[in-house]
Amino acid sequence: MTTLSGASVVITGASSGIGRAAALAFADLGARVVLAARRADVLEEVARDCERRGGQAVAVETDVTDPEAVEALAQAAMEAFGGIDIWVNNAGVGAIGAYQDVPLAMHRQVVEVNLMGAMHGAHAVLPIFLRQRRGTIINTVSIGAWAPTPFAAAYTASKFGLRGFAASLRQELEDFQDIHVCGVFPAVVDTPGLTHGANLSGRRINPGAYLYAPETVADAIVGVALQPRDEVPVGWPSRAAQRSYGLAPKVTEHLIGRVVRGALSRADVGPMIEGAVMRTVPDGTLPSGGWRQQKGVPDAHRINKIALTAAGAAVCLGALAWASSRRPR
């Protein structure tokens, strides 16, 4: 696509975090967005924000674990805008804790939302894309699809599965050059994810200070909509995890496990939280989770730019010093 003005875009998990940021980013470019999530009241608020930015918006209360609800979402998008150009499978949840300490029903729900929710979305929209002979599915995956994380077993399983599902689907659709199945793989992002996720570890989870803004991931999603690519890392940690796990999986697993176990052992004791895994919660309605503001740190993307600028300046100064030392007296 050369422009997103007038494009019809469906986004699941659009009530907060990356989904809400993506909805606003598409609206800024004049897209017509269909917003899906479980919290109808929050979706209406997002729809109003999108319309204030120049886009058209429709809110459809949807639980992505229900295939009939997702089929109804696709039908609502067709009725509202006459077609679907882009479908963003973004809804996601997580549960932190030792595998045996997390109820099996909660593990199942994480997989149902993260993996089956995306599969339901693809199943609903693919017949439409095949009739149109064009369309793009974009899955919000995770660094967790390249870096298996302890104490988040179901989340890791769902993201590894989502990556494999997308790869399989791409092979099936090779004869349809204008139908794309893409994925974005963010590093750690400042969203309400920890508010919405379950935490049964008994520790207070601190995501650290190196956090990407949800708007950075939203920009990547928009970029993939304009120029489809199979797998797009967002942030150098995600790219590093991809290469590290591909080259040395055992070493990567050992290092990640050591880091995560060490961080949990040092963390303060905290309450057991069920979050929004099994049912909705009123908290966490913005794109940002507020962690960067709380810690007083900039977006990791900006930190990268500052570091690159400083490194470039150091190289230039070093080169000038070397040149001066070589100049004849």
Return the structural class: alpha/beta
- The total number of structural domains is 2
Oligomer: single chain
Count helical runs. 11
Average pLDDT, rounded to a whole number, is 92
Query: Cα distance, first to last residue?
Result: 61 Å
Largest beta sheet: strand ordering: 3-2-1-4-6-7-9
Rg result: 21 Å
The CATH class assignment of the largest domain is Alpha Beta
What are the secondary-structure elements, in order, as H or E?
EHEHEHEEHEHEHEHEHHHH
Bin the strand percentage. Answer: 5-15%
Number of strands: 9
Helix content: 40-55%
Level-2 CATH architecture of the largest domain: 3-Layer(aba) Sandwich
How would you characterize the largest beta sheet?
7 strands, parallel
Per the principal axes of the C-alpha atoms, what is the gross shape?
globular
Domain Ketoreductase: 7-179
InterPro entries: KR_dom (IPR057326), NAD(P)-bd_dom_sf (IPR036291), Sc_DH/Rdtase_CS (IPR020904), SDR_fam (IPR002347)
Organism: Palleronia marisminoris
Pfam families: adh_short
